[in-house]
Amino acid sequence: MLARIRGNPRPLVAIAIAIGLLLVFFVIVAPLFNTSGAPAAELSGGVPASGVVGHQLEIDLGLDNTGFSVISPICIVVSVQATMHPDYAIFQGLDRETFVGDKVCGGSLNGQDSISVRMFVTPLVAGRTSISLTPAKGSAAVGPAFSGSLTVAAA
């Protein structure tokens, strides 16, 4: 049998190439399909320092999926004082979604992906106010809250 392999090594080479391709697939490609694990996300950005009663403010945010699982639907839960009204958010510059209760949702977010979110709120009363934004999968928080405060001037 050894003499036969020495005379025609092609089947042995083909088997070695097939094993090599399988190893490459399992080492490089297979981990890309790993969508397991607990969902985790983070918000970052900045809250404007000031605003005017009745004039809409824009809050620019970055939303990062820091886990490997798909977060669907990706939402932002908003906690504001009664002195501010959340209007709507634009996800990735395309998807405009209005608030339903205290949250706004915009599709899904793949593992290790990041998107931009532009959130619009309207101050209702002059004075100091604060806002807290939490990334969520539906209504369940999947990361720490991002918060900020601003001073609102009378119109």
Overview of the structural elements:
The longest helix has 20 residues, at 10-29. The chain is rod-shaped. It is built from 2 helices and 11 strands. The chain has 2 domains: 2-33; 41-153, Immunoglobulin-like, CATH 2.60.40.10. 17% of the residues lie in helices and 46% in strands. The chain has helices at residues 2-7, 10-29; strands at residues 41-46, 50-52, 57-65, 74-80, 84-91, 95-98, 103-105, 114-123, 127-137, 140-141, 146-153. It is of the alpha+beta class and 155 residues long. Strands 2, 4, 7, 9, 10 and 11 form a 6-stranded mixed sheet that branches. Strands 1-3-8-5-6 form a 5-stranded antiparallel sheet, with no helix packed on it.
The 3D shape can be described as rod-shaped
Helix content: 10-25%
Kindly report the CATH topology of the largest domain. Answer: Immunoglobulin-like
Gyration radius, in Å: 25 Å
CATH class of the largest domain: Mainly Beta
Give the mean pLDDT.
88
β-strand amount? over 45%
CATH architecture level-2 label of the largest domain: Sandwich
Contiguous runs where pLDDT drops below 50 for at least 5 residues: none
Number of helices: 2
Give the secondary structure arrangement, pairings included.
Layout: H1 2-7, H2 10-29, E1 41-46, E2 50-52, E3 57-65, E4 74-80, E5 84-91, E6 95-98, E7 103-105, E8 114-123, E9 127-137, E10 140-141, E11 146-153
Parallel strand pairs: 2-11
Antiparallel strand pairs: 1-3, 3-8, 4-7, 4-9, 5-6, 5-8, 9-10, 9-11
Summarize it:
With 155 residues, the protein is α+β, with helices and mostly antiparallel strands. The protein is built from two helices and eleven strands. The chain has two domains: 32 residues; 113 residues, Immunoglobulin-like (Sandwich), CATH 2.60.40.
